[in-house]
Amino acid sequence: MGGFFSFLIVLIFGGSIAASSVKIINQSDEALVETLGKYSGKKLTPGLNFLVPFLDKVVFKQTIRERVLDVPPQQCITRDNVSISVDAVVYWRIVDMEKAYYKVENLQSAMVNLVLTQIRAEMGQLELDQTFTARSEINEILLRELDISTDPWGVKVTRVELRDIVPSKAVQDSMELQMAAERKKRAAVLTSEGEREAAVNSAKGRAESDILDAEARQKAAILDAEAEQKAIVMKAQAVRQEQILQAQATAEAMQIIAKTLSDDPGTREALQFLVAQHYLEMGLKIGSSDSSKVMFMDPRSIPATLEGVRAIVGDGQP
């Protein structure tokens, strides 16, 4: 009976030793093993691994996947002495398990303190307005500085993002007042620019209208002058044509009279009578006109005038 218990104890002890000598490491994890308290470079990789009982010991096990470090809000002072609260998110991963364990005592706490220190340093070099407008540049600077600082710890910082930059309540109130004043100023400037542009457009419109009116009047005057000139020319041509026709008619009438006198001598006396009659009628018309005229005519000269007319008419005979 005692032998059975002894065998059972040996079996349990041996099973515990065998179980402690087998280690299973999950994918994306690594583990460091010390032998008799000394690290000799033995590292456990994902899968089934065997340890020497009582000699080997797993001292550090951690994932090599990318991790997120949530940095709590931190009070910072900008270069223009404004108090702001800043928090951030840091993405990082372990690239050297040995350095991550042996070069720093508490990697997580060291990372947090380092990030806070870098954030304070960068914010202290900027003014308040720059912290809002240069966030991407601040992220790049923090990424570069943190990656260099954590390299001795076997850590690779892949990304840094500032989440919130919150000024104090008094600063927020003053910023709101400033923004309201800037909006009013911008509105006033836009209104004045709109009025000035409207005035300019109105002046341009009036100037263009005046120019068009002047051009229209000029064209109208030119057309009127051309029309008047054409009318004068046409009237002169009509008068000339009329005079030519009258002269032709007079010449034809003279030819007819001369031919009639030459063909019928008896008509000469009648023609002399008509000429004398028209001469006397002309004197009567001149005397009876409304305008004041004086016509000197010697009654004794009338027979002589008639004789002269008769002589002129008589000279036309062949």
As for the CATH topology of the largest domain, it is: Tetrahydropterin Synthase, Chain A
Question: What is the percentage of strand-forming residues?
Answer: 15-25%
Provide the CATH superfamily of the largest domain: Band 7 domain
Radius of gyration: 66 Å
Number of domains: 4
Main sheet: strand order: 3-2-5
What can you tell me about this protein's structure?
With 318 residues, this protein is α+β, with helices and mostly antiparallel strands. Helices cover 62% and strands 21% of the residues. It has a three-stranded antiparallel sheet with strand order 3-2-5. Helix 3 packs across helix 5 and helix 7 (267-288) packs across helix 8. The chain is rod-shaped and about 200 Å long. 10% of the residues are buried.
